[in-house]
Design brief:
The chain is α/β, with parallel strands linked by helices. Helices cover about 50% and strands about 15% of the residues. The chain is globular and about 60 Å long.
């Protein structure tokens, strides 16, 4: 697995022979071996040119863009990538077949709820928290999900389960300045919602990069409706990883008091967003988390989290193209 390059400040990123040259006002120039990089996340104002994009395409490097508030805005990916006509047709056929689409979408919901339950149990073992009522309701949703009649009903169960799951945040986080109250997205209305939105965007981009290392088309999703305006398969797969990676990271940062309320700033429309300093701290911890290893259930071997994401995407590809059974990733501590 290659490294991830984050660019926060205004800079120029260009090609210098077969390396990357990053020029910033404050830190001067630095040369980056292109062979060691898998993805670049652009948080600041960065100038690029055609020669750079040619090199990124040649080396299969993905370029993700975020706005001033840390919101994901788009991706440049190698134009051909690892596209496969056969996989594309099989993926589209599964999406158009209501039964097959529902089966895969239900797997994502089951995996997501399973990971919510296991995360709550993990913290219950370490803190004096009674979350039995929340767990019981999540288990009820877990039973209901496969028996739904369509994907829209599945989305309803997933949404209800996640809203119930967010009640656990305020049981675990006792600092009133970091309480969630209710999940609000557009825009986030408090510090906790701002943290969730930003860390989720990190999860979406990380999963998307790994999808580009398979033959899957990220535009064709199963739980979330495919859209003309956005890629969405990464949203499906990220449902599995948000509880065990994104939410656990947030809990860790808050418990260690790594961020203060002053690290978050208001937006003109009544929202709250993480400052550049907050985003740097979050990303530093996010990278540490991704470099950790776990034993992947079906393989029985240790993997870093990016490898786990890629393996999950490959398992979905095998399910679609070869009819192999697909069991969603559920992390067990």
């Amino acid at each position: 697995m290659g490294k991830t390059l984050y660019i926060f400040s205004s800079a120029t990123l260009k090609r210098k022979d077969n390396t990357l040259l990053l020029q910033t006002k404050n830190n001067g120039s630095s040369y980056l071996p292109v062979e060691t990089i898998d993805e670049i996340l652009v948080m600041g104002e960065v100038d690029i040119n055609k020669s750079l994009l040619e090199l990124l395409s040649e080396k299969g490097i993905v370029l993700h863009f975020f706005d001033h508030f840390g919101k994901y805005t788009g991706t440049y990916s190698p134009p051909e990538g690892r596209n496969s006509g056969q996989v594309f047709l099989a993926q589209a056929a599964h999406c158009l077949d209501d039964g097959k689409r529902h089966e895969l979408a239900a797997a994502f919901v089951i995996g997501a709820i399973g990971n919510m339950i296991n995360l709550i149990k993990y913290y219950q073992r370490r803190h004096d928290i009674d979350a039995g009522e929340i767990i019981d309701y999540l288990k009820f949703c877990l039973i209901q999900a496969p028996d739904t009649s369509d994907v829209q009903s599945l989305m309803g169960i997933e949404g209800t389960a996640r809203n119930t799951y967010y009640r656990f945040f305020d049981l675990l986080i006792t600092d009133p300045q970091f309480r969630i109250g209710k999940r609000v997205r557009h825009p986030p209305n408090n510090i906790m919602n701002a943290m969730i939105s930003f860390v989720n965007s990190m999860c979406y981009s990380a999963v998307l990069t790994q999808i580009y290392h398979t033959h899957l088309d990220p535009r064709i999703s199963f739980l979330h409706s495919p859209s003309d305006r956005r890629i969405s398969l990464n949203l499906d797969i990220s449902e599995l990883f948000k509880p065990v990676l994104a939410d656990r990271l947030i809990f860790s940062i808050v418990h260690k008091r790594m961020l203060k309320p002053s690290d978050f700033e208001p937006i003109g429309n009544g929202g709250i967003y993480a400052s550049e300093n907050a985003r740097k701290i979050i990303i530093s911890e996010w990278e540490k988390s991704l470099r950790g290893t776990i034993t992947y259930p079906s393989a029985g071997q240790k993997m870093g989290w990016r490898r786990v994401m890629r393996t999950e995407a490959l398992n979905i590809q095998k399910y679609i193209t070869e009819g192999l059974p697909y069991e969603p990733f559920i992390h067990r501590w």
